[in-house]
């Protein structure tokens, strides 16, 4: 007989694992399903989005500031960066964050299934496990928290080398000499900022009339004004 849960969550990103913790805190028997290879929890944000990107941004910011130390009366001779070391730093942050989510699941007695979840009918979720087997979960409630994936663009087929998406750019083994970033949303400007600071000649292309177009225009204007005042 299949194991019975009060709630089963498909997806272990920020939406999924927070719901799992809260459900367990309220006394529910909770299961969470994640298809990520290596049984890593954290979803797009933790594994390929916010967390690794912010780690790279931090390294890029420190490198840039170190190059400006003479403004403060400080001297740094022979400043350079180790890209492999930066990537290791980023991966370490990601792994630590994923381990933290795994700990939260264990602490709150949430059952984790590593595989691809599929709603198989009323109150049933089928999991294609990582080892090739299948298991059916009986559950009273289902939460779909499957997150997002990179959207392909016709005519810009990615090859992981010359044309890369926002997942692949995190794993580049070198800083390219030049780069065109298609789109100036939060993701685009973050990557443009990282690679530009490490010496990549970076061009951002945006269809709309300004960068980060979904952000409040007045807030952007205020930030620009404040930046000029403290520069």
Structure description:
- This protein is of the alpha/beta class and 231 residues long.
- The protein has six helices and seven strands.
- It has helices spanning 14-25, 43-47, 50-66, 83-107, 186-197, 217-230; strands at residues 4-10, 30-34, 111-121, 124-129, 134-144, 178-182, 201-205.
- Strands 1-2-3-4-5 form a five-stranded mixed beta barrel.
- Helix 1 links the parallel strand 1 and strand 2 (30-34).
- Helix 3 (50-66) packs parallel to helix 5.
- The protein is elongated, with a radius of gyration of 22 Å.
- The mean pLDDT is 91.
Average pLDDT works out at 91
Radius of gyration: 22 Å
Strand order of the largest sheet: 1-2-3-4-5
How much helix is in the residues? 25-40%
Question: Keywords for this structure?
Answer:
single chain; 231 residues; alpha/beta; 5-stranded mixed beta barrel; two-stranded parallel sheet; elongated
Furnish the topology, listing elements before pairings.
Layout: E1 4-10, H1 14-25, E2 30-34, H2 43-47, H3 50-66, H4 83-107, E3 111-121, E4 124-129, E5 134-144, E6 178-182, H5 186-197, E7 201-205, H6 217-230
Overview in brief:
The protein has 231 residues and is of the alpha/beta class. It has 6 helices and 7 strands.
């Amino acid at each position: 007989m299949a194991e019975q849960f009060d709630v089963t969550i498909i997806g272990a990103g920020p939406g999924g694992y927070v719901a799992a913790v809260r459900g367990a805190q309220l006394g529910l028997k909770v299961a969470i399903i994640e298809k990520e290879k290596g049984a890593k929890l954290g979803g797009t944000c933790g594994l390929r989005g916010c967390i690794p990107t912010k780690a790279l941004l931090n390294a890029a910011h420190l490198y840039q500031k170190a190059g400006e130390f003479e403004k403060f009366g400080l001297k740094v001779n022979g400043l350079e960066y180790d890209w492999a070391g930066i990537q290791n730093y980023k991966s370490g942050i990601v792994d630590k964050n994923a381990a933290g989510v795994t700990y939260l699941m264990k602490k709150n007695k949430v059952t984790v299934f590593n595989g691809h979840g599929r709603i198989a009918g009323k109150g049933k979720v089928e999991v294609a496990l990582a080892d090739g087997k299948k298991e059916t979960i009986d559950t009273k409630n289902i939460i779909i928290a499957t997150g997002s994936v990179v959207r392909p663009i016709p005519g810009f087929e990615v090859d992981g080398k010359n044309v890369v998406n926002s997942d692949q750019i995190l794993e580049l083994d070198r800083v390219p000499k030049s780069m065109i970033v298609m789109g100036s949303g939060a993701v685009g400007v973050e990557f443009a900022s990282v690679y530009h600071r490490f010496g990549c000649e970076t061009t951002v292309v945006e269809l709309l009339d300004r960068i980060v177009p979904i952000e409040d225009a007045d807030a952007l204007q205020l930030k620009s004004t404040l930046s000029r005042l403290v520069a």
